[in-house]
Design a protein that fits this description.
Strand content: under 5%
Structural class: mainly alpha
Helix content: over 70%
Number of helices: 3
Radius of gyration: 22 Å
Mean pLDDT: 75
Number of strands: 0
Low-confidence stretches: none
Length: 76
């Protein structure tokens, strides 16, 4: 059964309106092509990489503070 015209328009519009941390559910007509499924996987992967980057930055800041305190205590 072919997708209705409204579904095609909605599908094309949703391809260009992704916002991180807000995933849309795929309809059967969208997932049938596989294109949005791959796109969604890439977006999820990108979100995870962003979270890892944030965690690494946080750890770097913590380690820098520890290093600063150790340097201060060695000076006294």
């Amino acid at each position: 059964m072919p997708a209705s015209r409204d579904n095609i328009v909605t599908s094309r519009a949703s391809q260009h309106s992704f916002t991180p941390r807000h995933r849309t559910n795929l309809s059967s007509s969208q997932s049938r092509t596989g294109q949005l499924t791959v796109l969604e996987h890439l977006q999820i992967f990108n979100e995870r990489l962003t979270l890892v980057e944030q965690q690494m930055n946080s750890m770097t800041n913590i380690l820098q503070r520890i290093d600063d305190r150790m340097s201060q205590s060695n000076m006294t």
